[in-house]
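Bug #77: duplicate submission created two jobs. Keeping one. Sequence:
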Amino acid sequence: MGSSGFSWKLNDHPKLPKGKIIAVVVLDGWGEANPNQYNCIHVAETPAMDSLKKGAPEKWRLVKAHGKAVGLPTDDDMGNSEVGHNALGAGRIFAQGAKLVDLALASGKIYEGEGFKYIKESFETGTLHLIGLLSDGGVHSRLDQLQLLLKGASEHGAKRIRVHVLTDGRDVLDGTSIGFVETLENDLAKLREKGVDAQIASGGGRMQVTMDRYENDWDVVKRGWDAQVLGEAPHKFKSAVEAVKKLREAPNANDQYLPPFVIVDDNGKPVGPIVDGDAVVTFNFRADRMVMLAKALEYEDFDKFDRVRFPKIRYSGMLQYDGELKLPSHYLVSPPEIDRTSGEYLVHNGVRTFACSETVKFGHVTFFWNGNRSGYFKQEMEEYVEIPSDFGITFNVEPKMKALEIAEKARDAILSRKFDQVRVNLPNSDMVGHTGDIEATIVACKAADDAVKMILDTIEQVGGIYVVTADHGNAEDMVKRNKKGEPLLDKNGNIQILTSHTLQPVPVAIGGPGLAPGVRFREDVPDGGLANVAATVMNLHGFEAPADYESTLIEVVDN
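Kept job's structure:
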């Protein structure tokens, strides 16, 4: 429909009333898996969530939260919070991050775009620097994309290339960094045979160097800056393979936490600091852990740490990492155009909206939910509340995080009766799950469940409706497994902890005294995913979803 004929007006649902207060609760990193001792959700005391599952079977089901269901390239791709909340809010499946990059690389379009043309102007006299996570984890980056980009850039005129590698060990097994560096070195050697001066210039572990997020610790970015831009680091090596092997020999060494290192030539000079006239590409496709570096590379006015030098470079992200900040201003691949999200429709149809989480997931329940768009649709009808996350500690130290505070804000918003939708994200099972601390993750799951109980009790008081779901799995499986599903052991016979997200489905539960009689989950949407939740929520608000939305999960049967 042309823009002239477009209307935000939604049709009324023929059988469901308007005006009920609806709580939408997203448990972050809360998947469904076999009960065992590594399933922290199963081990934890979670009476609220248990009661939803054991209640009416037609009001609890699982949906897909990974792979193609959320716009990722394959069903081997684990879900993540960004694409999960995009799907929950948008009601449709959009090609995401990695998939957009794959399409642009496969078609060669990436080399015709604005972003590439911009950095290409530096190829004649400058160096092309590629900075990112060296891993095939597929969460932040993928090795094969870096390999294609190296090949393509050299074919399009890059004569001098330096790669600044960040080792993973979080989305992939610890220890795999050595193999990834060897693979990359092999590729760079082939480029050198073709006359391209290509080598690794610096490196370090992702949690120690560059990849901080949400302005938690600028020192992480500074350590990366010192190595990548200034060519300075406490550790200097002749080769990256030697660097990673040597640094992994330290007691308790781990790929995630390797200290920064710089590669030097025979005279002890760094082989690839970033200088005036160079081009830089950050090749991660996922945004959250690139934004801080992007600010340091792009902002003239910057006070987070002393950059010492601010080189005049041409910088392009693999994608634009923040649509609101327009950061970076140049990027190789354009983002999915997510329009007409459920949040925008509902506000235009009189649904007053409250959204809340703590810092680490506040953007998910607002920006990502709203189609990668910051701010309010109609300020007078919306309120977004961010509770500051704990700062300067790892989340397993305080696994309860701000779950109680989030639940209290939701409770107050519901009882105020000022809002028709009260939407929250409870981050515990994801953020603590990422630390790999099983005991703490059990505490985290209980804290999230306590918060769910407070919200459900409040919905009971106002005669409202609840929709409880999740964005992807994490805490439900904390151990790495072989192809048969058996736990993997390390050489000392200890289990190998899984810190990443999973491929598991997530629950959706509906209920509350305001739920019309006869509402139940349909049985003809067996492959439903997160994107089906949006139409479901719209129905519960008393509206039909737009025709091109993924179908609703519910039906109303006449009793």
